[in-house]
């Protein structure tokens, strides 16, 4: 008797589960668990990383990310307003900035601020200023498009109602439009915070004192003194301590806001429009 469509689908799923079980069993039998434990789960090496991996590296990663995000959010808001400005030169400047810094690697910005700017202009930034500027400059290019989309997503009727009450354009923007826009864009901004957390690892190109190490730099230094890859695993878990809660927060905020999609270049696959 021929199987129905539902029965064929069920049989296919069962066969896939059986295949996965067989593959897992084969891997479990042929794997060298002693070598895996020595290479990835060396508890002696992991113990030596504590508490500094938390009190120094994880803390510094959070500080660097917060500085970059705060500067990037402020600059991104300015760029978004410039992009929506009726003054054409403002729109051109914002568009050029966004296109340029969305197109170049963040590593180049770190290099420029760490080595290029001191050589060309004689300006020397401390470690916190360098990270804040580098992460913020790149992050602002992405956040500007998100904020711009959020502002445009605010219903026009609310703007018209505010203006009919006698509010000026500036007051309407500050008290009505921007607060509602930020409520809409909280999920994508949370995702940008996750990206900045990972981009903070680019600070490795700058000479750092031990008390300035972030997670990746700390892991690289520990790895250079250890025959095991355990430091990389520990550092990866520390990043997950940061990014997993932020990911859950982003999904929660998206549900709270009704999962409203923004017309950003990332969601449409299009570049920034002039």
From TrEMBL:
It is a multi-pass membrane protein. It is found in: Cell membrane. GO terms for cellular component: ATP-binding cassette (ABC) transporter complex. Pfam families: BPD_transp_1. The chain crosses the membrane at residues 62-82, 103-121, 232-253. One of its GO terms (molecular function) is transmembrane transporter activity. It comes from the Bacteria. Residues 58-250 form the ABC transmembrane type-1 domain. One of its GO terms (biological process) is amino acid transport. Keywords: Amino-acid transport, Cell membrane, Membrane, Transmembrane, Transmembrane helix, Transport. This is Amino acid ABC transporter membrane protein (PAAT family). It comes from Saccharothrix texasensis.
């Amino acid at each position: 008797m021929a199987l129905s469509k539902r029965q064929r689908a069920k049989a296919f799923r069962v066969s896939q589960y059986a295949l996965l079980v067989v593959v897992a069993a084969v891997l479990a039998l042929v794997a060298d668990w002693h070598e895996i434990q020595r290479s990835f789960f060396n508890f002696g090496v992991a113990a030596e990383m504590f508490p500094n991996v938390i009190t120094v590296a994880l803390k510094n990663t959070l500080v660097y990310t917060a500085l970059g995000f705060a500067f990037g959010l402020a600059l991104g808001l300015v760029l978004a307003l410039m992009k929506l400005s009726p003054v054409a030169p403002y729109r051109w400047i914002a568009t050029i900035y966004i296109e340029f810094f969305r197109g170049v690697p963040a590593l180049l910005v770190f290099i420029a601020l760490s080595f290029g700017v001191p050589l060309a202009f004689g300006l020397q930034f401390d470690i916190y200023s360098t990270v804040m500027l580098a992460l913020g400059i790149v992050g602002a290019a992405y956040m500007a498009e998100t904020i711009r989309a959020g502002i445009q997503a605010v219903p026009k009727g609310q703007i018209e109602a505010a203006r009919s009450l006698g509010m000026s354009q500036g007051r309407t923007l500050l008290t009505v439009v921007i607060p509602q826009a930020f409520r809409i864009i909280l999920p994508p901004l949370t995702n940008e915070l996750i990206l900045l957390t990972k981009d903070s690892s680019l600070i490795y190109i700058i000479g750092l004192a031990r008390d300035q190490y972030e997670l990746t730099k700390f892991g690289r230094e520990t790895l250079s003194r250890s025959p095991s890859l355990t430091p990389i695993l520990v550092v990866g878990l520390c990043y997950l301590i940061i990014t997993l809660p932020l990911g859950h927060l982003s999904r929660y905020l998206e549900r709270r806001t009704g999962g409203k999609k923004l017309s950003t270049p990332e969601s449409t696959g299009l570049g920034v429009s002039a």
